[in-house]
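User: Sequence recovery, please. Input:
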């Protein structure tokens, strides 16, 4: 039997998972049926970037085999596919990354802010094979940062599904026998999962993405259009956006100041050259007169 949510969520964290429409923020009431905003998270090496490329239908994110996270900062990709405007945010690898935990948290907040007015779904990529305690701890950090409500919009995506198929098994068979820690996460996410093969191409690849979008649409409909995130976190997004806007303004002002300085500097140099040229002409004229 799996442990309850208290094993993952701190006792002092109180999150209402049944938020009424009257309590939802203005952000959550802005719904566009053609728009689809996705954030992909997961451990390094679980195919986050490759999955993002498959969903978008073109190579935008850098992906490859690496022991350390290739994606160091959140990257945003967009494409129009299946009559949908799809936005995907690729994030740095959880746990086994060169980034410090505080840097990772800040980057994750920034990634969430890139989906304003908010993500529709979060895909947690999980590799086929050993599920580690570190991955479980990373999920706990995620809950601590975003609130328990975030589990209502998480879909576990088992990448390298071809490995299971090669053994003549179904992804359901794999999930049935997966580690207890992974079962806990699945329970919190209402057992939303899907096998995903990043080696598919053509019509099979398109159908796989359509199936995923169909599952995402079900989650969106159930959640009333948006991921149920902590109000505290929602405020953090706005603060971050305001801070970034202020920083951009400072950078712009500094660039303008530098341009103005160079303009004045070049103007002074030009005036000095003109003055020197006039002085030289004056000296030559005096020399000619004395001759």
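Assistant: Recovered sequence (291 residues):
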């Amino acid at each position: 039997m799996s442990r309850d949510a208290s094993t993952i969520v701190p006792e002092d964290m109180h999150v209402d998972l049944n938020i009424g429409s009257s309590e939802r923020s203005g952000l959550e009431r802005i719904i566009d049926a053609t728009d689809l905003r996705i954030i992909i998270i997961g451990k390094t090496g679980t195919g986050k970037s490759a999955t993002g490329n498959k969903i978008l239908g073109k190579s935008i994110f850098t992906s490859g085999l690496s022991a350390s996270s290739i994606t160091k900062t959140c990257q945003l990709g967009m494409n129009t596919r299946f009559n949908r405007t799809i936005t995907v945010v690729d994030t740095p690898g959880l746990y086994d990354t060169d980034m410090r935990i505080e840097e990772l948290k800040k980057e994750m907040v920034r990634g969430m802010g890139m989906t304003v007015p908010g993500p529709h779904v979060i895909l947690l990529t999980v590799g086929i094979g050993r599920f580690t305690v570190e991955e479980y701890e990373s999920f706990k950090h995620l809950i601590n940062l975003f609130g328990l409500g975030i589990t209502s919009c998480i879909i576990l995506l088992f990448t390298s599904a071809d490995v299971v198929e090669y053994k003549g098994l179904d992804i359901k068979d794999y999930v049935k026998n997966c580690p207890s820690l992974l079962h806990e996460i699945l329970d919190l996410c209402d057992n939303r999962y899907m096998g995903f093969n990043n080696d598919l191409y053509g019509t099979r690849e398109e159908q796989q993405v359509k199936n995923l979008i169909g599952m995402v649409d079900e989650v969106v409909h159930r959640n009333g259009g948006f991921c149920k995130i902590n109000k505290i976190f929602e405020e953090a997004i706005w603060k971050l956006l305001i801070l970034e806007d202020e920083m951009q303004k400072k950078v712009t002002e500094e660039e303008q100041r530098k341009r103005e300085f160079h303009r004045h500097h070049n103007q002074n140099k030009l005036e000095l050259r003109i003055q020197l040229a006039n002085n030289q002409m004056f000296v030559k004229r005096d020399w000619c007169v004395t001759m």
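DSSP finds eight helices and six strands in the chain.
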